[in-house]
Amino acid sequence: MADRPDLTALIGSRICHDLISPIGAIGNGVELLMMSGAGQTPEVALIAESVASANARIRFFRVAFGAAGAEQRMARAEVTGILGDLMRGTRLSVAWNGPTEMARRQVKLVFLAIQCLESAMAFGGKIAVEGGETRWTLTGHATRMKIDPAIWEVLAHPSLRTDISPAQVHFALLAEEVARIRRRITTELRETEVRLSF
């Protein structure tokens, strides 16, 4: 019997697909305003910045929450471009040390893991990503961490039942995706550092 389709991932892909076109159209409209000289105002600059941020977030969500076929690949330049656009103007930075090309399914896992670290690093910091097809390690450094130990337990023990809010859904999804490929997640939580490996 064929595997059942991942409806959650298909919904994520559909939403991102349907949103990317109108956001792109708004961005094009703002560009035309700026080129015509009519849009050289702080208000239009703010709209342009917001559109760029929304576009970057949707591109990130498309990989993290969308469907990923077994044959789909992503180049490192595309991955780092998405992360660079996503982190622009934030207090977080991501240093990516991965292969020049990797399976999209692997990138999906790493993007979900980045969101987990981002949840713990509400005040900013630096995330280092290292790995390849067989093992990934993400390390977050920050002067202050905001860690909910119960939600981090879900990663190491996916069978645990805990209340998950919409802001924490990436923890449950990462645990599920890693279990699907028969790997385990290890976590190390310290005062100024969080490490996550799978």
Structural class of the helix and strand makeup? alpha+beta
Please summarize the sheet with the most strands.
Answer: 5 strands, mixed
Provide mean pLDDT, rounded.
89
* Sequence of secondary-structure elements: HHEHEEHEEHHEE
Instruction: Give me the count of strands.
Output: 7
Query: Which runs of at least 5 residues are low in confidence (pLDDT < 50)?
Result: none
Neighbour order of strands in the largest sheet? 2-4-5-7-6
> What gross morphology would you assign?
globular
Summarize the amount of helix as a percent range: 40-55%
Structure write-up:
The chain is α+β, with helices and mostly antiparallel strands. Helices cover 52% and strands 17% of the residues. It is built from six helices and seven strands, in the order ααβαββαββααββ. Strands 2-4-5-7-6 form a five-stranded mixed β-sheet. A two-stranded antiparallel sheet has the order 1-3. Helix 2 (42-65) crosses helix 3 (76-87) and helix 5 runs parallel beside helix 6 (169-180). The radius of gyration is 18 Å and the shape is globular. The two termini are 29 Å apart.
Give the arrangement of secondary structure elements.
Blueprint: H1 7-36, H2 42-65, E1 73-75, H3 76-87, E2 92-97, E3 101-103, H4 104-120, E4 125-131, E5 136-141, H5 149-156, H6 169-180, E6 186-189, E7 193-197
Parallel strand pairs: 2-4
Antiparallel strand pairs: 1-3, 4-5, 5-7, 6-7
Helix pairs in contact: 1-2, 2-3, 2-4, 4-6, 5-6
Keywords summarizing the entry:
198 residues, two-stranded antiparallel ribbon, single chain, alpha+beta, 17% strand, five-stranded mixed sheet
